[in-house]
Write a structure and sequence with these properties.
- With 95 residues, this protein is of the alpha+beta class.
- It has a domain of 44 residues.
- The protein is 26% helix and 14% strand.
- It contains 3 helices and 3 strands; from the N terminus they run αααβββ.
- Strands 1-2-3 form a 3-stranded antiparallel β-sheet, with no helix packed on it.
- It is flat and about 50 Å long.
Length: 95
């Protein structure tokens, strides 16, 4: 809503984004860095500069992209439909 209010995003695009099953994110607003604390500022900037996902967990299967969510190299589990529960299958646009 803030982006729509500022004219940075069309309302129809915002509505579509909110309808996506994985929409939303969380933010920890409790982080406070004092002006003179350069080490804490560097840690925060390094954290913010990290990529959103690990490339070694991403693979292509046909036209789909599959992202393995689990960190450990264990055998993936399956849900009721037989889909691997620790993997996300996305189109390139969804990614």
């Amino acid at each position: 809503r803030a982006f729509v209010g500022r004219g940075l995003l069309e309302s129809c695009d915002a509505k579509d984004m909110l309808a996506y099953q994985h929409s939303g994110f969380s933010v920890d607003a409790g982080v406070c860095i004092e002006a003179h604390d350069r080490a804490a500022l560097e840690r925060l900037l390094r954290y913010c500069a990290r990529p959103p996902f690990a490339m070694e967990r991403l693979r292509k299967e046909g036209a789909a992209l599959v992202y393995r969510c689990a960190k450990q190299r264990s055998e993936p589990t399956s849900d009721k439909r037989g889909a691997k529960a620790d993997e996300l299958t996305l189109t390139p646009l969804e990614l």
